[in-house]
Amino acid sequence: MAGIAVIVGVAAFLIGMRRKSPAVLDAVREFNKAVSNPKQMETAGTPGAYASIIEHTGRKSGSTYRTPVGTMATDDGFAIMLPYGTRPDWVRNVLTSGTAVITAEGETVAVDQPEIVPFAAVSARLPDNELRLGRLFNVEQAITLRRAPIESP
């Protein structure tokens, strides 16, 4: 009986993610905030880690937040898949401020010019495992961020 419940739960999760059900997306985001993100932050941003860190300023609070994200390097910055669309706070914060700081592979980089693009625009650059995840969860969007120019004193 427990096996059936697990199968039903996994099926509901996958269907909800693929169909972008707000209830499922919100539940997964809340779970990630409470459980997955703190664990990811233990290694995020270090060489070889799955997750990078995006540091962003709260659009309402003005506080600084650090969130683990999966980044991929581009010619002029980074791209990040958005399996939850543009609803996560970090996405809205970055779009509002227009800037962030990303730590990936031990390197910290200021970024700007955030732009929401179709997932297909970045999918050719993804490793096969990330591409499969994007397809499995029916990811429709990504955010691109340009390396900010270094300001001279």
Q: Summarize model confidence as the mean pLDDT.
A: 89
Distance between the ends? 67 Å
Amount of beta strand: 25-35%
What structural category characterises the helix and strand content? alpha+beta
SSE string? HHEEEEHEEHHE
Order of strands in the sheet with the most strands? Answer: 2-1-5-6-7-4-3
Instruction: Kindly provide the radius of gyration, computed on alpha-carbon positions and rounded to a whole number of angstroms.
Output: 16 Å
Primary descriptors:
153 residues; alpha+beta; Pnp Oxidase, Chain A; seven-stranded antiparallel beta sheet; 5 helices; 7 strands; globular
Describe the structure.
This protein has a seven-stranded antiparallel β-sheet. The termini are far apart. The longest helix is centred in the N-terminal third of the chain and has 19 residues, at 22-40. It has five helices and seven strands. The protein has a single domain, classed as Pnp Oxidase, Chain A, CATH 2.30.110.10. By secondary structure, the chain is α+β, with helices and mostly antiparallel strands.
Q: In short, what is this structure?
A:
This protein has 153 residues and is α+β, with helices and mostly antiparallel strands. It has helices at 2-19, 22-40, 89-97, 120-123, 128-136, and strands at 52-57, 64-69, 71-73, 77-81, 99-104, 107-118, 141-147. Strands 2-1-5-6-7-4-3 form a 7-stranded antiparallel β-sheet.
Ordered list of secondary-structure elements with their pairings:
Elements: H1 2-19, H2 22-40, E1 52-57, E2 64-69, E3 71-73, E4 77-81, H3 89-97, E5 99-104, E6 107-118, H4 120-123, H5 128-136, E7 141-147
Helix pairs in contact: 1-2
